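seq/struct pair 1
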Amino acid sequence: MKHLSTFIFSLLTLLPLAAAAQHAAPRKAALQKDNAGTLAVETPQTLELSYVPAAYYTPDETLADYYFLASSVPATVKSGEVKMSREGWLLYADLYAEPSDPARLPEGTYTAGDGTAAMTYDASYSYLEYRNAEGVIEAQCPLSGNIAVSKDDDGRYIIDTKAVHAGKTFDVHFFATLSFADITTTPDNLPQLARDVRTTFTGALGIYMGNLYQSNTGNMLLNLYDGAYDSETGAQSGQGHCLQLCLYNKLFADSKQATVVAGTYVMGRSFKRETWYPGIELEYNGMTGILGTFVQYVDAEGNYAYSYCADGKVEITETDGKYSISVDLITKDGYVVTGTYEGNIPVMDQSDDQPDAHISTLTEDYELTLDQVGVTRIWHQNNTNGCGLFLADIGSPSGRDQSIVDNGGDIFRIAFLTAPDCTAMPEGVYTVMPNREASSFQPYCLDRGHFENGGDLTGTRWFHFKEGSYLVADGLAPAYDGTVAFTRNADNTVTYNIDVIDDAGFRITGVWSGPIEELEEGIAKVTLPGAAVSFMDNETIRINGAAATDAVQVFAADGTLIASGAGLRSVSLQGSPKGVYLVKVGKGQTIKLLKK
């Protein structure tokens, strides 16, 4: 298992460290009414703004302050003071709306106010300013009317308002990317890129980290480059971007065989399949490292800047070893990261996975083959801890399906948890419980696969029976995660959609549709053609209705014959050990009973 500390260290060996960069917000100053438009500055017809020196976000529980500066020429904010590259206009906008995560200014019309209501702007702190080449303020102009906020298809902001100068009203138009830094959070230690990244990647390298933090999924760091890089280490060796995607998908039993797995990946912090982990800074032994998905940029002078991805999706397809990748992400500061890649992806193995103890015999993902099963059987087992427990067999483990007896193959047992008053299995999507504690049982969950006291694997689990041997299992796996969807069809059949993960981290999937046999008590009382078998007082097996010529045999779980005879009506298990017993009635009619 890749430990977290080892994982962070491996990232630090790939990424250069940089000095911390602190940014101070500009002083929020109110409009000086007496100077508004009094100096000799020409009134523009329409003022175009396309630069954002700073944008800051201050959230409250119900109201957030979106305060930003937009300029007509390049400008920066250093130590709280605005520095403009040359003479030009500067817009101060102090808008209020509902909080958002990440911080994104909501679209709509903002009316003049005092900063106490959503969808308003504080007129005292929202105005235009003109500065000459020496940075001297030559005019301040109040805004007139509303501020209209919208976005284009690429997520860039369009902001329109009006201002008054020397008694004349003119239009103010802003069009650019607008991203807000949350000043209530801890500042980033590493320098931030603070811009969109829209590129075409020309190189790729996968780094397989294995079963990170016992997640039972395989962690793949997929680096995409649009500049020069070292194919042996993954480090950038020239100007350009590196997008590191921290992907989670299937776990490889042999890490040397690890590849990038195709799929659509969405942001998640659970380490589940087809998710990517967002980018965050981590302090480790006095160093700052980055965990998750982020952009690293190297400029022509060798300086580094970073941008941490927070939302979006990654689409990966693969055909004959050739990959096609499309990324559409948003950083925690609201910037866009998009790009594509076409080509091969070599993979470095940095996993230190060791074989873990598990029940499953699988070494790869598994697709169920259930087409030889002719009927599913469902019965209500009992009520426990406020839930009803229904068991469903797709293929019988006790010999009721002759095709399985003769040919072997897959069977699947499902332990559905329902509301306690259910008299029949309800439709729905059932999720495997995260643990085996009965106190945590909830309706629309699945009991995890587990061993009973008698040594029998039960709960939700898969078995494969060996061909040519009477119900001898050569494969088994308990369900530890995932879902089973149960549907009742219009033609009185049912459908199961199975998508679970076993305790070794492998995926088991399959779909079965067909007729249903709803039994009374399952293994406690099972009615078969010609006979009904029940277990009385945990000691005596009763066989009712078997023909006088029907051969009845009772076996222990290890195959030892306990009793046999034609037309037997009862078999005593008094003095016999606890465990599973098999009762075979007639030709191929076998059921399983549990002595507790």
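seq/struct pair 2
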Amino acid sequence: MKKKSNKLTVGEIAAYSLGSLGREFSNNCINAFFLVYLCIYQGLNPIVLTVAFVLAKLWDAVNDPMLATIVNNTKKSRFGRYRPWILIGAIVNAIVIVAMFSPVSFENITLKYVYYLVAYVLWGMSFTVLDVPFWTMLPTMADSTDERNQASSMAKLIGGFGGFLVGMLGTSFILPMFANQGMMRAYQYLGMATGLVMIVFLLITVLFVREKIDLPHENVGLKYILSTFKENDQLRAYSGSLIFFLIGTTIALSQILYLYTYCYEDGADFLPKAFSYTLFWVIACTGQGIAMIFYSWIVKKLPREKIYGISFLACIVSYVLLFAVFFFLKPGQGDMKIYWLNTVLVALSGAFLMTASGLNQIGSTVMIADIVDYGEWKTGKRGDSVMFSVQTLITKFAGAIAALILGIGIAASGLPTITDVNVKDLETGSYASVQLFTDEDGNYLVKDEKLYENLQAMEEIDSEKLTKVEADEELISSEGLTVLRAFMFLTPIPLTIIGYFIYKKKYWLYGEKYDNIKKEIDERREQEKEKTKA
């Protein structure tokens, strides 16, 4: 009887990577658009929201390991131990995303806060249900570090492309396409599209990836979860360095959308703002893609631990470049050449950041797989799902802290909210949704003379809430924009430096030390097999 090969195939790597694209659609949609949607279009307070998000992550600190324990203790079926959980989590997560971007009309503002906070918590829990088994499955697909490198690097590459796609899909197509129906309806369509794409691509992983390596498995409980951080010093070092890195990159990349929304010129109507934002991601993600495609080649030239360390230093350089570009950038003011130069400079600076982020993502995924091996070597138990839940928890907690810092920046910069208003055309009698800036008192700020006249003539609009703004008058103060830019690029620098020093001082699980540990683990497994046969 011919024995099945455990070698990782190209088809399995492709199917696994497409699943990563699906999960990143969900993750990046929430990170990029949810706070914008709530603050700008629902008019909710950014400080209240982001504090609530951080509190929600404290709940994640409890429920993520609990959910991971349930996944870890699940009996293996003919479909595997992890794939059924991925499918269940994807379906629930998609439903929750649609609910998160669905407008609600509570008269009591507190109920609106409660609705979106509960939805955010449910999103985090359902994302854990799909994310933890997705990464936990990696050691069951590939037992060697080289194969894990191949699978994780391609998964991160395609996943990063998914992050770019959801940004492009939202800002260049769905939101502009349905803006005439109101931005809240457009965001709801974005949520629907995100959920559908996520389910389709994760279904490919479920159907075409095999859990073919039968690793030692033991049920773990709360006692194991609590002792994991205490006993596994490499897990603590990994967690400390990664969380500071992710907070920094999330702050920078999340605020790009705010800068394009509030303080970027359309450049003589040559390139609309939405497509300029897309161009940023095209160039930025090209840099990330190049880094991920050539990661396997790079790691042959430089030790993996050095590449990981370089990613921290490269991010710091990129923050300085982005700050310099955005802080000293001159508006296009109708000059197409200046506008194109501005756009390309911003995108190239972003590409540098995304390249460094890509190298870090691949390295961190392989590191957590190695840390699982280290945990087995040190304690005798693998607890794969619990270990990988730490990565999910770090990502979500870093996103919440970044959102808190971002919320403080938004509040300090005094950004106006944007409201959907159905405006009647006085000539045709037809209605179209227009997005207007509103001040803190709820007054509409209108620059266009014709639009102002239309609004005054409408019985549905309280004329006392209309404020005519002169064409040369700024809706956002230059001081406010300075605060926004400073929060975006200067705040991440000290955070990244702290993460780098934690990694350099505390993490040592690589090279010959790891090879010796892996060799001893394999010898123990063989001895256990011999005892079982005897």
